[in-house]
Amino acid sequence: WTEAAWPLTRRLQVIYREITRIIQEFKPDAVAVEELFFSRSVQTTAAVGYSRGIALLAATEAKCPVFEYPPAVVKRAVTGQGRATKEQVQYMVQHLLKLKTPPAPDDVADALAVAICHLHTALTEKAQVAKD
């Protein structure tokens, strides 16, 4: 995707263009993202926040609905507990998606976990609507 040595503005531009291209190519019904988690590093939190904002902008411009989930909700949907470790999330994503190896790096596992959480939430809400 991007190189750490690139200026932030260039990295954000590449992220925006790639996400826009992916949305145009695959035409998703929705975009699911994890709510921002504040880490101990202000720089890391800011960089993730910028990238997340770019993703939200690309989805909004494509008129694609955006759904946001807190990290604990994502972990609970995938592992059954809201305080699961990265390794537990990786293991369950591998198990649920029947992957031969754990998704790596752990950011990939996190993204897949958010997708699983959204799918689970959407199916649960549909089932609830059907009962009403």
Short précis:
The chain has 132 residues and is mainly alpha-helical.
Description:
This protein is mainly α and 132 residues long. It has two domains: 1-68, 2-Layer Sandwich (Nucleotidyltransferase, domain 5); 70-132, Ribonuclease H-like superfamily/Ribonuclease H (Nucleotidyltransferase, domain 5, 2-Layer Sandwich), CATH 3.30.420. The protein is 64% helix and 6% strand. The chain contains five helices and two strands; from the N terminus they run αβαβααα. It has a two-stranded parallel sheet with strand order 1-2. It starts with 7 loop residues before the first helix and ends with a helix.
Features:
2 strands; Nucleotidyltransferase, domain 5; two-stranded parallel sheet; 132 residues; mainly alpha; 5 helices; globular
